[in-house]
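Running co-folding for nicotinamide-adenine-dinucleotide.
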Amino acid sequence: MNRVIVAGGAGFVGSSLALSIKRDHPDSDVIALDNLKRRGSELALERLRECGVGFAHGDIRCPEDLAAAGPCDLFLDCSAEPSVHAGYGGSPAYLINTNLLGTINGLEHARAHGAAFVLISTSRVYPIAPLRALPLAVSGDRLDLPADAAGPGWSRAGIAEDFPLAGPRSLYGATKLASEMLVEEYRAAYGLRTLVYRSGVLAGPWQMGKVDQGFMVLWASRHLYGGGLSYMGFGGHGHQVRDVLHVDDLYDILRLQLSDLERWDGSLFNVGGGAANSVSLRELSALCAKAAGRPLEIGGVAETRDADIPWYVTDCARVTAATGWRPTRSIERIVDDIARWLVDNRARLEPILR
Ligand SMILES: NC(=O)c1ccc[n+]([C@@H]2O[C@H](COP(=O)([O-])OP(=O)(O)OC[C@H]3O[C@@H](n4cnc5c(N)ncnc54)[C@H](O)[C@@H]3O)[C@@H](O)[C@H]2O)c1
């Protein structure tokens, strides 16, 4: 890895991975390419510079911007419009042009330079209707599956890679599934070496959480800084569940696979926090109230948005069996890391997160 380009390298995941790669490979040239569309990404520039990561102000929709960033032997695609709600009620142009055409531009750049290609895909490739049809029931403060319930690609352990893919999955999810398919085709047609991660919710410091994306930081910041919060959808009770993966755990699997790319070339894994790291919004409120030292009054909006799903837990069995990797940072640790970061950087973060 002499030269690495991280598209979306000023974003939450991209900056975290770029900094970790630079830390572990100080002699590598690591370049973060970003158009700074996401509010708060500009805060990454100082961190990147201080750690020796280069910055290319560029747009993944423009092949010229990639060409200007120069050659590389690893291309990490972390640039995106990452909201599952994007495109509804308006034009999907930015979403499709960035997430899908941008991936194609990245693949072309990798092809031109013989670079390996990593795609951060998403659990939202799995279709909405069958996820909503899981036999969920309220148990305490969360939705849960019966102990012995299981079906094609799902069980109480979560959603596995063989969960059926037929049906709408959100415009966002479609851009990612189409990107996955093109990654596979570029590998078959041009011998590109590739890794794909279908990530569940990722969280940690430096995520610029907002109402439509990044709920862990949104929740923690509202508890610490103040401001309104609502449980949205599924009756407005906050029983919906997600598993959460610390962004440093994502780096751990990436590092493991990059260290022996010939072996892992072509892999596609679900990666997420798993059942042990799952949390409902109500449970998250309790964790955030503890971190902030006070509870927050939370409203409810009964109506469910188009792309919402009530429960998603990643079944990591395949990646764990193949590689030995498993998440190591608990949900409590994730909330603590976020809360400490919010307290330590309040002056810079509050104008962005409130
Ligand atoms: N955060 C999660 O929970 C999560 C879960 C699954 C998958 N992912 C995927 O991980 C990747 C990174 O997501 P994130 O959470 O860091 O989001 P983010 O919004 O924090 O980072 C994305 C970055 O891409 C930049 N960007 C947007 N449009 C661009 C364009 N046209 N050209 C260049 N840069 C552009 C933004 O300015 C931002 O800095 C995305 O592909 C996302 O779909 C994220």
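Result summary
The longest strand covers residues 116-122.
The chain has a mean pLDDT of 98.
Job closed.
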